[in-house]
Structure formats: C-alpha cells, structure tokens
Task: structure prediction
Amino acid sequence: MMNYKQLTNILNTYSAVMFIKHPAAGLMILITTLWYPNIGLSGLLSTLAGLATLWAFQLPKNENSIYTLNSLLVGLSLGAFFELNAYLALLIILSAIMVIFLSVTLADGLWRMDRIPLLSLPFVIIAILASLIAHNTGKLTNYLSISSNPEPWFGTWADTFFNSLGATFFTPHPLVGGIIFLCMLAYSRYLAFLACCGFIVGLCVFNVLVDNPQPYMIAWSGFNFVLTAIALGGIYTVPGVASFFFAMLGAGLAALLSASIQNILLVYGLPVMALPFVLVTLTLLIAMKKRTKWSSLILASEPGPPELNYERSRLANFRQGGFDSVPLLAPFYGKWNIYQGFNGHHTHQPPWQHALDFFIQEDEKSFTLDGNKLEDYYCYGVPVQSPVYGLVVRTVDNIADNPPGEIDTKNNWGNFILIRLETGLHVLLAHLSQNSIKVKEGDWIKPGTTIANCGSSGRSPQPHLHLQVQQDATLGSPTVAFHLCSVITSKSTTDAEYKVVSRPEEHDTVEPAEINERMSTRLHFPVGRTLHYAIEGTDISDKTRCKLRVEVTLAGQFRIVSDSGASVALTEANGVLAFYDRTGPADILMDMWALGLGLTPLTERATHWNDSPPATLLPLTYIQRVYLSLLHPLGSGLNSRYQRQWNKESKTWVQHGKHELKVAATRLSASTTAILDPEVGCTQLTLSSANKKWHAHLIETGLAEDEGIPGWRSLSSGNSPSELQNDEMLQHQEPS
Result:
C-alpha cells in the first residue's frame, strides 16, 4: 500500500520537470499527461519503475526528485510515439532502471567536478537509445506523429506557446500547456515571466534560422527555449537584469541548437527532446563557474526558486558586504587606527586600491618620546594574527626594518605572509618585523593564530600593518574588495559602534569585538539539540507546547526545525549567530525566533546594530501578504534595529528589535524581545504587531539520543513571560 510520503515523491517528480517542487502542482501535471492515456500511463509506469529501483538497490534518494524525473521523461517519450503493449512496457521498465543508475552515476561525478547540475542529461541519452530500439522493431505500433497539429484553442501565438509547454511532457496540446502555465504562475510569477520571454526570444531566433518552420516543429522544440530561460534566469542564478539577459541569451542558443539538431533526429522520426536545453544550460553554467572576476551576474549558492535565490542574495549582500567582498577578521587585538584606507592617496591606487594600513595612536600620536626609534612607536613589535582560515604559500622574513622616516623601494612589501584561501584568492599581510614570522610555507592556519609582529620593513616610513586581498599569488597582483567582520568602530566625532560588516576609512578606529564565551556556548546549537517552548497569545486559546530541534541537511546546512515542519537555517561564524532561509508552513514560534534572534552578535560589546530579515516574517494578514507580493514580487527586507542591554536584576541580556517596512503609503511594523540567559540560552521570545502579541517561554532543553550518544533533558529555570515585561528594570551595566 502506497503511503503519503511515496505519493508525495511521485507528485514532486512531475512538478520538478518545470523546476517546481509542490505536490499539488505535480498532481495537476500528472492529470494533464493523461489527456493522452497512452502517454500518461507510460510515464507513470516509468516513474514507479524508477522509484522501485531506488528502493530495491538502496540507492541515494535525491531531495529534488532529479533521478525519478529522468525516468518519468523516458516513459513519457516512449509512450508518446508508440502504443503501450507488453513489449513497450518491458522497454519502459528497463529504460527506467538504466536511467536511474546513469543518473546516480552522473550526478555524483558532475557535482564533484564543480557542483554541476544533472538536469535531464540521463533522460536524453537513454531516450534516444530506447527510441532507436523501438523504431527498429516490428512489435510496436506508432501512437502520436510529431507532424500532427492539435486543434486550435486560444489563437495561433498562444496555442504555439502552450503546445510547447505541453510538449515538455510529450503532450503537445494547448489545454495541457495552459494548465502547466497556471501551475508555474501559482508557484512563481517570475518563472512564468521568464517562460514567456524565453519562448518569444527563442521563437524569433528559430524563425530567422529556419525558413517557414512548421508549427509542429516549434511545438516539439519550443519547450527547450522555456526551460533554458527558467534555469539560467531564475533557478541557478540570482534574479536581476544581468541574469535576465543571460537567460535570453540561453534561449537564443537553445533555438540555434534546436534548428541544427532537429534535421538529424527527424530522419528517425524523433523530436529534439531536451538536448538543446541540457547542452546550452550546462555549457553556460560551467563557463560562468570558471570566471576569474565577479560580475553583476551572480550564480545562486544553491539552486532554488527565484524568490528564494533573490532573498538569499539580498540578505547575504546586507550581512556580508556583497558577493564581491571577502570577509576577514581583524588581524590584531586592541584598538588600531586606519593609516590609509581604500583608494588612499599614498599608495592605495588602482589596481591596488583595496587595501588597509593599520597603526596605533594615542592622543593623536603614533609614538612616544621623540619618535626617533622604532621602539617608540606603539604598534612596533605588536603581535599580528591570521584574519582567515588558509594555507601559507609564501613568506619573506629577512628584510631589515627601516628607521623612522626611511623607506625601502627595492622591497616594497618588506617582510610579508601570503595566505591562500579556498576560493583561490590570497590574503597579504606586509611590512612585518624582521625575523618575527612564526609560520612557514605549507602551514594551515586559522583565525586568531599569531603569525608575526608588526614592523616597518619595505615601503614603510613608520611602523604599520598592511592588509589586502589579491587575485593570485603574484606580488603586485590586482586587489579584491574585502571587509572586516564583527568589529567595534568609531570616528573622531562619533561614539564607538558595533558593526557586523565594516569597511573602515582613514582616521577611523577599529577594534575586534571579543566573543563572550558564555553567550557563545549557550547560543551554540549542535545537531540533536531540542528546545521546548510554551506559547500563548493572539489566536492561541491555551498555552501551546512546541518543540524545536537542530538538524543537518545532506548538504551540511544546520537548520532549526519545528514540530510543525517549519524550519530556518543557522550559521555561526565570525562572532555572529545568524538565521536565514525560513521555509515551511506558518509557525509563529519560528517567525518569532527568526525575527528576535535573526542576527545576534556573540559579544557583550554589541549594544545596537541593524539587520534586514525578510518581510514575510511579520505576522501579516492574507490581504497584506497579497498586497506585499504584488508590489515586491521577488521579496523585500525589513529595516530592523536591534538594541541589547544587561539586566542586572534578572542577570540576563535583553535584546529588543524594531522591525519596519514601508509599502507604498502603508507602514508595516513589529517589535520583538529576546531574553538571553548566560546559563540557559534564549528563555523568552516576545512578538508584538498592531494589536497582536505572542509570548514563548522556554520550559525544557535537551539533546536527542543518537548512536552511542545518550540523550538528556533539563527543565528550564528561566522566568515566565509575565515576570519579564517591565522594561524599567533594564540598566546599562556589563555582566560581571
């Protein structure tokens, strides 16, 4: 008996052909394939054979149904051209088994190469081979002819477009294509927009290349234009102007391949299938992964719907300083000043404009006494730390330090350490003190490792530390933009401020924000950690108990998952705990968590900071959500301002958040409060919006039992929500 999960897997297989992952859309598409029962039953038989193969041989399951997707397409293609009988059923089953094995094999190899997607490559290979076998036997009767034209429904242009969409499932019919388009529109309006634009561009190119093309030729080729545009413009790239034109280029190239390949396959009575889509998409994606420099065309970190890719990109750009900026930790302890910043007028000019020079000042002087000796300078001999994880690829340690006011023009960089990052970029720390380097070439180092002392070697008129990120290992290589993470910065006219991302300017003061160990420990979430909360508030009649659990995906992503199925990803890096990628059904606790703790610095020096979580986390009405989606179809971010204070009465950190978004003439807003106990963790969450309010109180923590690891549970001793509402108790006092 088929269970719900197995049924969902089958339905997701159908929807995944159009890059949609939704069982309702899959059910609609499955039904449309039965417009021609011979085709629909053949596809269903092939899908079941593929699933049975995965189960029988214990092959890895794929979350995106890419393996069974290829087996589905093989069955549909054979059922489209031959009547279903015992011989064809056997051929479909054997082909489905073969395509599953080929999919598993190719998927692993392509992913290891450079995270290259499998797409429908196995289907194309096996379908062509199986079709050649079918054409050379006398045991089969032809079913559909590729030269037949379905009856008109909506008009010439619309029928041509919808026929092409239907041909994706080897069912070229306007009504079938129309239903598929409605499924796309309901799932993602941007995907539907790309489908229309890609088809128009591909059709224009196809008409230019082919004299008087027959409608059936376009119907059996046009879906390649659509799929290529969808993949390149929304699934594997971040939506934007650059990705849109990239997608249209792909659609045009798919038309070129369709025009050239179809004459070869028509000899055997075969359509071009998905061969142009696969070849163009893989070629362009692989080429873009080989770029040596960032551009406005941004590849998605993980393939997904365009709205999700856009949100990930928007949030990463806000929190990480942009995709073209490299995150570094400050390479020192204590307060340092910026001697020269990006585009500095001394030496930081193109192509070396992305660099920072640090030194130490007291009372606006960098030295004590008369400054005639190197030892008079505050930063001379001070330890320098690694700002990154990386491999030491080159060091120079034997160049003498210059007397104050002198420079060495023969050895511009002086003593230096060059560190290679996993991205292939290199970090250079220069002007180090002679014989002070404590690492050697070939060493792997991590942030915080003392690697040398600050000096005055090379082109250095006074002791200072030079930091830059460059494109390759050649000294003098063009520099790349970078930023410092989790630092306390100030200008001469402003108070010190905590910044998650900072690109300091000349005369700014910079100090690394030291991580609070107790806060970091209590807000660390290992796999299996469980948190039980009692929730009360608007539309909740009684206290509801909800459990959160930390899980890890196959891709290595940590997620906090609610018992409702809602989840949010989390990462802890560079002294910051961050939550992102909220997915799943409505869950007020998950929204409270993602808003209240969305970006939490793990240092007690952070008293206020900003963030921009997605607006969908707000407790909006259905009408508000529709209104927001119409004005911001790809999503929008909130203007979130956080403040954190130490409450000496309850001995907890109290983290307030104000979240606002202006939509046309309307202002949406909410406020959050998170109580962080240094002994327990987050004991309370509060969310208020308009006349609505919710409280969540931690009642129990634990660790799920795992193989060889016993589970444990502990009741929380945190205060109840009602005991923590008086903000007058809050005082600016650091914890002892």
